[in-house]
Amino acid sequence: MNLEQKEWWEGFLTTENAVILDVRTEEEVANGIIPEAINIDIYKGQGFIYQVEELDKDKSYFIYCLAGGRSAQACGIMKQLGFEKVYNLVGGISQWEGPIEN
């Protein structure tokens, strides 16, 4: 499900057992990350799938990348793997106006 920034952030803040998932590369993450996010690089292919399969399917995942494309792809992959609560940040971190950690 695609969410605009405000709904995405409020959803994360108000959802119990919510996880922020950053699917960018390590180089991109070095430029800043949304607080509490865990990073699993979608470009790792099968490695991405292995890492995602270890996550708790009962939790809600708020996913982002640089512009929203890779995170939308990650949402699709996760749905195929049996995750029901996945939310894509439209526009990604490039349009993010919320908190960022370096």
Strand content: 15-25%
Secondary-structure class? alpha/beta
Work out the helix count: 4
Q: Which oligomeric state applies?
A: single chain
- Average pLDDT confidence is 97
User: Helicity, in percent?
Assistant: 25-40%
CATH homologous superfamily grouping: Rhodanese-like domain
Number of strands: 5
Main sheet overview: 5 strands, parallel
Strand arrangement in the largest pleated sheet: 1-5-4-2-3
CATH class: Alpha Beta
Question: Which runs of at least 5 residues are low in confidence (pLDDT < 50)?
Answer: none
Task: State the CATH architecture.
Answer: 3-Layer(aba) Sandwich
Taken in chain order, the helices and strands follow as EHEHEHEHE
Large-scale geometry: globular
Which secondary structure elements does this structure contain, and how are they paired or packed?
Layout (H helix, E strand, L loop, with lengths): L1 E2 L1 H10 L3 E5 L3 H4 L8 E2 L6 H8 L6 E5 L4 H12 L5 E4 L13
List keywords for this structure.
single chain, alpha/beta
Describe this structure in words.
The chain is α/β, with parallel strands linked by helices and 102 residues long. The protein has a single domain (2-55, 63-95), classed as Oxidized Rhodanese, domain 1. 33% of the residues lie in helices and 18% in strands. The chain has four helices and five strands, in the order E-H-E-H-E-H-E-H-E. The chain has helices spanning 5-14, 26-29, 46-53, 69-80; strands spanning 2-3, 18-22, 38-39, 60-64, 86-89. It has a five-stranded parallel sheet, with helices on both faces. It starts with a strand and ends in a 13-residue tail after the last strand. Keywords: Transferase. Pfam families: Rhodanese (PF00581).
